[in-house]
Design brief:
Type 1 dockerin domain, Rossmann fold, 6-stranded mixed beta sheet, 5-stranded mixed beta sheet, 34% helix
């Protein structure tokens, strides 16, 4: 709970009178404490504002809250204005709703140091689940607050997507989370970069239950999962409807609809709630968040670089809209100029190739959001590509084969890679993993080293 210190006006007057700027060296922060917990006491409150005012020689990942590459009075004021937001269990994701309670039904916040007894999770379709340990009774104060009761931690689940696995793997510190996975859709249809999943599919402890468009429901029924993790939209809607018919409990994860890389990654906290892994999720996400924000610091004030994202394929020519997680990463995290920022909205839009080519041909950097496995027809689909500035300058990139699996889990590294290809002068000597230099002539790609 926040400390009751009635000194807000005095603090602001004091900090505004002291305009000392400390620019610390670039170093790792304290990943055991959330961003904003400057004094490391496990909670975020006015005491942290006071501490930062008095001690600005903290690591830059901890104290540079406005990401301007220095720790100064502006960060003290920034924390004063925003510490309530930093306290919240969910800081970036828009569609995660988790409420924690003590045994008497009072709301508490384990991400701010409180103990909890129960939790209610609302999934992306509006279902509300009361999560409790098997030994606990259902409290009377929870009446009317939930639709279903689920005993946690989960021990038997089916997952729809590899991105669900990517959000479960960071929680798997004792092996119990992945051990609960008994079935996967598309399990045998593509390469797995998670060795435990690959091994489970080989030895039969994990069953491939078919594609998401036509799952084998007999196998799913035989598994008798406590939960089927699905995503809403696309083929997920059909699975949701069938689960309702079969009275199978499903939980909808909508990380792919979020508007930033960090928001997508923060869905790890939803999975944590189903496995009582809040402490693990807290440390994991704190590290990803603090390291990811370094990209904003390193690219701040750099010369403008124009960036194209997209290409033509058999499905059309899709480009991210201005409020999508991709566009925001280019513009907000990497301080690049996204050439399609005049298309408002989240998600992506299909445009004609001529419009795409007219703009993309003069872009400094071109990202083709596919791996080489899917780019065999790239030259035929993108006529005139060889005249593009990015191609002639060797600054055309594609994504790695493991981007959609390991990349989501390593969101901070993905953002560092994106910053590296947009502003190589800020990342000299760094070699990318998730964004690769692409060679259209022979459809090959290699890691890119900034120099």
């Amino acid at each position: 709970m926040s400390k009751n210190i009635n000194t807000h006006p005095m603090i602001i007057l004091s900090v505004l009178s002291l305009l000392i700027c400390i620019t610390p060296s670039f170093a790792d922060g304290d990943y055991n404490h959330r961003l904003g917990d400057i004094n490391g006491d496990g909670s975020i409150d006015i005491a942290d504002v006071v501490y930062l005012f008095k001690h600005r020689n903290v690591p830059i990942e901890d104290g540079d809250l406005n990401c301007d590459n220095s720790i100064d009075i502006a960060d003290v004021v920034y924390l004063f204005k925003n510490y309530d937001k930093y306290r919240e269990p969910i800081h970036y994701a828009n569609d995660i709703k988790i409420t924690y309670y003590d045994s008497n039904g009072n709301e508490v916040n384990p991400y701010n140091g409180d103990s909890y007894a129960y939790k209610i999770v609302e999934d992306a379709t509006g279902q509300k689940f009361l999560l409790k340990n098997a030994s606990q009774s259902i409290p009377s104060w929870a009446n009317g607050k939930y639709d279903k009761v689920i005993n946690v931690p989960l021990k038997n689940v089916v997952v729809m997507s590899s991105t669900h696995i990517a959000l479960m793997e960071p929680l798997n510190t004792d092996g119990s989370v992945i051990a609960s996975v008994k079935g996967i859709m598309w399990g045998g249809k593509y390469k797995w970069y998670f060795k435990d999943i690959e091994e489970g599919l080989k030895n039969g402890s994990i069953i491939d239950v078919g594609s998401s468009y036509s799952p084998n429901y007999d196998e799913i029924i035989n598994i008798s999962p406590q939960v089927v993790f699905v995503y809403p939209g696309y083929s997920g809607n059909g699975i949701i409807a069938k689960c309702k018919d079969l009275n199978i409990t499903y939980v909808a994860d909508a990380e792919y609809l979020e508007d930033s890389y960090l928001a997508r990654c923060e869905w790890v906290k939803m999975f944590a709630a189903f496995y009582n892994k809040e402490d693990v999720a807290n440390k994991y996400f704190t590290k990803v968040e603090k390291k990811a924000l370094n990209v904003r610091r390193l690219t701040r004030g750099k010369e403008p670089v124009s960036v194209a994202w997209g290409s033509k394929s058999s499905w059309g020519t899709y480009v991210p809209k201005a409020q999508s997680y991709v566009a925001k990463a280019i513009m907000d995290d990497c301080h690049g100029n996204y050439i399609f920022s005049d298309y408002p909205g989240t998600g992506s839009t299909n445009i004609d190739y001529e419009t795409f080519a007219e703009r993309a041909k003069s872009a400094d950097v071109w990202v083709v959001p596919s791996s080489t496995t899917w780019l065999s027809s790239f030259k035929d689909n993108n006529p005139g590509y060889d005249t593009f500035k990015s191609v002639q300058n060797g600054r055309i990139f594609c994504i790695s084969g493991d981007y959609w699996q390991l990349g989501l889990m390593n969101t901070d590294e993905v953002l560092m890679d994106l910053g590296t290809i947009i502003h190589p002068d800020a990342f000299k000597g760094r070699t990318t993993h998730y964004f690769l230099r692409y060679y259209p002539n022979n459809n090959t790609a290699v890691p890119y080293t900034a120099n």
